[in-house]
Design a protein that fits this description.
Blueprint (H helix, E strand, L loop, with lengths): L1 E8 L3 H11 L5 E4 L17 E5 H9 L3 H7 L2 E3 L1 E5 L6 E4 L9 E5 H14 L3 E4 L4 E6 L4 E5 L3 E9 L6 H5 L4 E17 L6 E5 L6 E6 L7 E10 H9 L2 H11 L7 E16 L3 E2 L2 E3 L5 E2 L7 H21 L7 H29 L4 H16 L1 H16 L6
Parallel strand pairs: 1-2, 1-11, 2-8, 5-13, 11-18
Antiparallel strand pairs: 3-7, 4-7, 5-6, 9-10, 10-11, 12-15, 12-16, 13-14, 14-15, 16-19, 17-18
Helix pairs in contact: 1-4, 1-8, 8-9, 10-11
The site of flavin-adenine dinucleotide (FAD) has 32 residues, from helix 1, strand 3, strand 12 and helix 8.
C-alpha cells in the first residue's frame, strides 16, 4: 500500500491550493479528485461560476505560482464596490481609500482550479488520483487508511477539501451546525450594453439582494457581466424555467437602471445554506474550505475564507517542521483550528446579520439601516474608522494608520 504524508480529498480550488502549499514544505501529498478540470481555450464562453478573489487570496495564489497564469488567461479587476438600498443612501468603497490600486478580481472558478492543477502536475511531491473518489476511511493512532474506488492508500494526515457535502466530514463523524436560508441565488451571465467596468455593486431589496459583477472581454452588445439574483426558492425556480429572452425582460424590470441593457447568455441556480463543522480536526483528519464552512455568498467571501484556511494550515505546519515538532500532532492541528474558527465564524455571522437586517420588512428598520449607510458616507470619522476598516478586512489587507 502506498504511504503519503498527506492525502487531500477534493482537488477543487481549496484542495488544490492546500496540496500545493504542503508539497512546497517538502511533504509527499496525494490529491484525490473525481473530475479533471477542462483545458483552457480563449474562445470558450465565460463560465457561470465566478468568484471575487480578494487581495489576500491573490497573494497566496502568487506565492503558489498561479496568479500570473490566471491573469494571462482572463480576469476582470475591480476598483470600486457600490452598496445601497434606497438611492439616497448609496455608499461606494474605493481601492484608493485603503491605499490600494484595486479591490480584487472576478475570476472563473474553473480557471483558478486549472492554474492550480498546472502546478500540481509539475510538482514532484504531488501524486494525482483522478478520476478517483473516496469510499471509506479507517482512523488509527498511527495513520489513516483511505479506501478509494480503485485503490487503497495510507496517510499521516487526511485533509477533507471535498466541498459542502463533505464525505470526509461524514465518515469522520464530525457534526455540523447550520440552516437553510429558504432562499436561492441565480447566477446569470449576460452581455451588457456598457463595456467592461471597474465596479461591482449590490442593491438590497426586501426579497433579497441583486448584484453585478463585471466580467472580462467584449461582446456584440458591449461587455459581459455576471448577475446574482437572490429570491425565494419558488421565485428562483420560476425564473429558472423561463426562456433567456423572458429572463432578459424581467431583469430589465427588476434590476436598477444603472445596469443598462443586457442580454442573457446562460443561467444556473443554487440554494443558500449555512453550515459550520463542529470541529475542524479529529484524529488525523482535518477540514478546509466548504467542507468546514459554507457562508451566505452575499459578500463573495466563500473561497477567500477557504484560501485563508490554506494559509493558516501552511503556517502552523511550517512552524512545527521548523521547530522539529511532530507536524501532524493534535497540538499542531489544534493550532490551525484556533487560527481559523473565530475568523470564519465572525465572517459568517456578519453576513447573517446583514442578510437578516436587510430582509426585515419594518419601515422603521428600513429607515435606520439607510440612515446608517448615509452616516457612513457623510461623516468623515465614521467614514475612515468603519468604512475603510471593513473594506480592508474584506480585502485581506492591513491598514497603515
Ligand atoms: C451562488 C454562489 C456564489 C458564490 N460566489 C462567491 C464569490 O463571489 N466569491 C467567493 O469567494 N466564493 C463564492 N462562493 C463560494 C465558493 O464557490 C465556494 O466557497 C468554493 O467553491 C469552495 O471551494 P472548495 O474547494 O472548498 O469546494 P468545492 O469547490 O466544492 O470543491 C470540492 C471538490 O471536491 C471534489 N469531491 C467531492 N467529493 C469527492 C469525493 N468523494 N471524492 C473525490 N473528490 C470529491 C469535487 O469534485 C470538487 O472538485 C459562491 C457560492 C455560491 C453558491
Amino acid at each position: 500500500m502506498e504511504n503519503f504524508d498527506c492525502v487531500v480529498i477534493g482537488g477543487g480550488m481549496v484542495g488544490a491550493a492546500s496540496a500545493l502549499s504542503l508539497a512546497n514544505l517538502g511533504l509527499r501529498v496525494a490529491v484525490v479528485e473525481q473530475f479533471k478540470p477542462k483545458e483552457f481555450a480563449k474562445e470558450q464562453p465565460l463560465d457561470l461560476r465566478v468568484s471575487a478573489i480578494s487581495l489576500a487570496s491573490q497573494h497566496l495564489l502568487t506565492q503558489l505560482n498561479c496568479w500570473q497564469q490566471i491573469k494571462q488567461w482572463r480576469t476582470c479587476q475591480y476598483k470600486r464596490l457600490g452598496v445601497w438600498e434606497l438611492p439616497y443612501a448609496y455608499t461606494e468603497f474605493n481601492a484608493k481609500d485603503i491605499a490600494q490600486e484595486h479591490l480584487g478580481d472576478i475570476v472563473e472558478n474553473r480557471l483558478l482550479q486549472l492554474a492550480l492543477w498546472q502546478e500540481l502536475n509539475s510538482n514532484q511531491n504531488i501524486f494525482l488520483y483522478c478520476p478517483e473518489s473516496l469510499v471509506d476511511i479507517e482512523q488509527s493512532t498511527d495513520n489513516v487508511i483511505v479506501t478509494l474506488s480503485n485503490s487503497t492508500i495510507a496517510t499521516k494526515l487526511l485533509i477533507g477539501a471535498d466541498g459542502a457535502n463533505s464525505k470526509v466530514r461524514q465518515l469522520a463523524g464530525i457534526g455540523i451546525t447550520g440552516w437553510d436560508y429558504q432562499q436561492s441565488a441565480m447566477l446569470i451571465n449576460v452581455e451588457t450594453e456598457f463595456s467592461q467596468q471597474d465596479i461591482t455593486w449590490q442593491q438590497f431589496t426586501p426579497s433579497g439582494p441583486v448584484a453585478f459583477l463585471p466580467l472580462p472581454g467584449q461582446s456584440e452588445l458591449g461587455g459581459y457581466a455576471s448577475l446574482v439574483w437572490y429570491h425565494s426558492k419558488a421565485e428562483i425556480k420560476r425564473l429558472a424555467s423561463i426562456s433567456n429572452a423572458q429572463l432578459t425582460s424581467e431583469i430589465h424590470q427588476y434590476f436598477p437602471k444603472r445596469l443598462g441593457k443586457v442580454k442573457v447568455i446562460d443561467k444556473a441556480s443554487f440554494p443558500l445554506t449555512r453550515r459550520h463543522a463542529n470541529s475542524y480536526q479529529h484524529k488525523r483528519i482535518l477540514l478546509v474550505g466548504d467542507a468546514a464552512h459554507t457562508i451566505n455568498p452575499l459578500a463573495g467571501q466563500g473561497v477567500n475564507l477557504g484560501f485563508k484556511d490554506v494559509k493558516a494550515l501552511q503556517n502552523v505546519i511550517a512552524s512545527a517542521i521548523a521547530n522539529g515538532q511532530s507536524w501532524h500532532s493534535d497540538t499542531v492541528l489544534g493550532g490551525y483550528e484556533k487560527a481559523r474558527r473565530h475568523d470564519n465564524l465572525l465572517m459568517m455571522s456578519t453576513m447573517d446579520a446583514l442578510y437578516t437586517s436587510f430582509s426585515h420588512p419594518s419601515s422603521l428598520v428600513k429607515f435606520a439601516r439607510n440612515l446608517g449607510f448615509l452616516a457612513i458616507n457623510k461623516l468623515p470619522l465614521i467614514n475612515t474608522q468603519i468604512k475603510n476598516r471593513a473594506l480592508a478586512y474584506a480585502c485581506g489587507v492591513t491598514l497603515t494608520e
